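JOB MANIFEST
job_type = single_chain_structure
chain_count = 1
residues = 188
[input]
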Amino acid sequence: MPPPRKPDPTHILSFTTNSLRNTTASVDDDTFFYEIVTRFWHPHLTKIFKLDKEARQMLLVGEIEREPNREPRVRIGGEQSNWMSVDEFVRWDPDMRSGTWMTTEGDEFRWKNHKRRLQLVKAGDAEAAPIARYIPYTRHFFVMLLDRHAALEVKDEALGYMDQLIISYLLAERKRRDRRIRVKIGRS
């Protein structure tokens, strides 16, 4: 007898490119549509916009500023909110290679690496099932065009804080990619 079939994931946000600075993340029916953009006239400022389907406009939900020789900063909630250090928003744990962040409701979540892929779990539960997980892209014959774009699989319980989840994912993935580049340069 075959094993029971897994339930289909609720929301899969597909990324159009592999860039963390210029991409879109959206569900197939565009109920969630995020545009992550870094303009060429502000090369150190990445803005995250969310599509409001009813008003038919893009709303600014967050900004990430990474100027050289300065501490990275993040602003959540639009242009009226205050800047905060990335370390205030996400607490990095060097031993576990993970980052913990807190929602506005007070829930704590942690991005962790599982088989070199990011997963979001509740901070208190070590054995909890992931709330969100990163699915990497695949290529035809490992060298040609993309067969499947990278995606972020998100469960229903994360829908209340999707804006913070997207911003924290961008910060955690940037930290992971920067660490990988530093290791490659160090071995050369």
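[summary]
The chain has one domain: 11-187.
Helices lie at 86-89, 162-187.
exit_status = 0
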